[in-house]
Design a protein that fits this description.
The protein has eleven helices and eleven strands. It is an alpha/beta fold and about 325 residues long. The chain folds into two domains: about 190 residues, 3-Layer(aba) Sandwich (Rossmann fold); about 130 residues, N-(1-d-carboxylethyl)-l-norvaline Dehydrogenase, domain 2 (Orthogonal Bundle).
């Protein structure tokens, strides 16, 4: 397959490296020092085993003209709108666009069925900027489970995890989603095709919408949040509100709320991605992870007071960091 990875950061770089190494024609879109290092020295992947592998992959700061069999959107959710016009221009009749963002996706109600079918979510697609450029019939949803990080410009470190769930947004089992699954499987990933990608999205979001912002606000790790009784209670309340909204929309969770919290606690002293963004001074995924669920609560008429409060505090933190061009990190005295 000919594949463009738009946003070749930690996850995009992991995907791009392993797809290219397995024989696919891959090109990367990146920026800054990371892009320059890839262009000059190649892209290095440090595997879970610690083994390092460097390969040459074409990279630029803009997507090429194609044609592409698949375009993977590897950036964070708040960066999709800016990338959408260029991605849209590169889509052909045979191109699929794979959304790999955390949180509720901009296409959530497209081909959803029911009373909210086709409704736009202002939190994740303000003014319809994304939908205007990315045709819904080209979209394949995915849920990303691996953890990876950029260890240095041009260097991706795969920490753990190997699963990318894939699904058509209308639940169909199609040759194109099977071909994408085969490509990822051939690159060493577990890439199941699921019949309800939205259920997988909610299962991951269930934890992200609680632990990520609480971690960012308190500078605490997952085990600390779960073992401190007041924040464990806050997480429980937020997750209960989210579950009520999701179930109203037809989602059924295959884990209990208690098992989901226990799973987060078992991860240990791990800093969430949002806390890492706070410490690095990067924009936070506020809308996709929290604001979208608050909006879904308003749409369904379900109260989400705990989610709303954490959303307000996290949004203000994001604004404060942006205005100050600053970082916020605990340091030992």
């Amino acid at each position: 397959m000919r594949i463009s990875i738009v946003g070749a950061g930690a996850i995009g770089g992991l995907l791009g490296h392993r797809l290219a190494a397995s024989g696919h024609s891959v090109s990367l879109v990146a920026r800054g020092a990371h892009l320059r290092s890839i262009q000059e020295h190649g892209l290095t992947l440090i595997h879970e085993s610690g083994e390092s592998e460097t390969i040459r992959i074409p990279a630029a700061d803009q997507i090429g003209s194609g044609p592409f069999d698949a375009i993977v959107l590897g950036m964070k959710a708040h960066q999709v709108a800016d990338a959408a016009p260029a991605v849209g221009a590169a889509i052909s009749d045979s191109t699929v666009v794979v959304t790999a963002q955390n949180g509720i996706p901009w296409w959530y109600f497209i081909k959803h069925g029911g009373p909210h079918d086709g409704q736009r979510l202002e939190s994740v697609d303000p003014e319809g900027r994304i939908a205007a450029h990315l045709p819904a019939d080209r979209i394949i949803g995915s849920v990303v489970y691996p953890a990876a990080e950029i260890g240095a410009p041009g260097v991706i470190k795969h920490i753990e995890g190997n699963r990318f769930s894939l699904g058509e947004i209308d639940g169909a089992d199609t040759p194109r989603v099977r071909a994408l699954s085969d490509a990822l499987s051939g690159a060493g990933f577990k890439a199941p095709v699921v019949s309800d990608i939205r259920a997988d999205i909610w299962l991951k979001l269930w934890g992200n919408l609680t632990f990520n912002p609480v971690s960012a606000l308190t500078h605490a790790t997952l085990e600390d949040i779960c073992r401190y009784l007041p924040t464990r209670a806050l997480a429980t309340s937020m997750m209960h509100e989210a579950q009520t909204v999701a179930e109203h929309l037809g989602i059924r969770f295959r884990l209990s709320l208690e098992r989901r919290i226990a799973g987060a606690e078992a991860v240990g002293a791990h800093k969430t991605s949002m806390l890492q963004d706070v410490e690095a001074g990067r924009p936070l995924e506020v809308e996709a992870l929290i604001g979208s669920v608050a909006e879904l609560g308003r749409i369904t008429g379900i109260a989400t007071p705990h989610i709303d409060a954490v959303y307000a505090a996290t949004g203000l933190l994001n604004t404060t960091l942006a205005k100050a061009h600053g970082v916020l990190k605990l340091q030992a005295r």
